[in-house]
Amino acid sequence: MARLRDNQANSGRFISKVGTMMQSSLTELDAVLMVARRGKFRAAALELGVSTTALSNAIAKLERTLGVRLFNRTTRSVSLTEAGRQFVSQVAPAVRDIHEAMDIARSQRTAPSGTLRINAFPTAAREIFSWLVLPFLRVHPQVHIDVVTEGRLVDIVEGGFDFGVRSADFVPADMIAVPLGGARRNVVVGAPSYLKARGIPVVPQDLAQHSCLRVRLPNGAIYRWPFEKDGQSVQVDVEGALTLDEASLARTAALASVGLALAMESDVRDDIEAGRLAPVLEDWTPTLSPLSLYYPSRRNPTAAFKAFVDFARRHGETRDALRPSIG
Question: Across the chain, how many H-helices and E-strands are there?
Fold first, then answer.
């Protein structure tokens, strides 16, 4: 009897929550939860795929409906009020239940549809875009894919993502991983005109005599170029005229003969084959872990989710055979 009363009480509380939520749209509740999670309106708006103004209006509408302020807003920060904290803690589980119920319903469809959200390092996103994401969309035109690139590791469950794409050695142990091809590597490249004028480095220490394109990591540190040969590892704190926070800009600068760049081989493969860039220190550039698509276990995956996993498994197994390495 006690268990029955507890179940009835829990059911009553859930129905009460749903009743409150039905007075506002699920979009408004998702907006509140995303801002609470990200701590910034702009970041939350980007993840939800809406404008900052639309997001702010949705939250303001919900606050008017509830008659309380959920967020303290300043020009620099956003934080939950006490009422906002209580609201989020009570509503978040119910919103998850509703989204899960919607996923279960969608899973009954035979044709994949809906939205899949993927979080990836920028370099990883560029690597999978042309051979995985775009071909999948051509096969399943009713599916929408939302790709978010970040240089930092994120909790994809907390962030509301379906998938993450990272190097295999960065995949959390509690996730299911799908290999996406074989080992990768970085390459040091320069324009032929730059190398003709400045000479070709033979060992990593020679980079001290060169202008190198430095990249700042998300934590503010400058990335040190890693090298390895015959069991000897060295990291070089390079110097140069430019420091960038987006590695793809280094390719553009290298093409303009500004200096040497450390890039993913896949990002500069076409430039090397066309002779626009030339690799150096090739015997010092180590291989990197392969990419993995990863995701948490799901009891009722949608048709789109299952289709993407199957597509990634098939194409990941054949990718290396279809794309020879430079060397």
Answer: 11, 15
Cβ atoms of residues 80 and 88 within 8 Å: yes
- What's the whole-model pTM score? 0.61
Backbone dihedral angles phi then psi of residue 112, each to the nearest 5 degrees? -60, 135
Q: How far apart are the first and last CA of the chain?
A: 73
Which of these, 80, 83, 165, 71, lies nearest to 117 by C-alpha position? 165
**All residues at 6 or more sequence positions from 54 whose CB lies less than 8 Å from its CB, including other chains:** 45
User: Quick one: which H or E segment has residue 312?
Assistant: helix 303-322
Sorted by sequence, the CB contacts under 8 Å of residue 84 that are 6+ apart come out as 32, 36, 68, 69, 70, 71
pLDDT digits (tens, 9 = 90+) for 230-267: 888 999 999 999 999 887 789 999 999 999 999 989 88
Nearest to 289 by CA among 165, 122, 136, 131: 165
Write phi, then psi, for 212 (nearest 5 degrees).
-115, 150
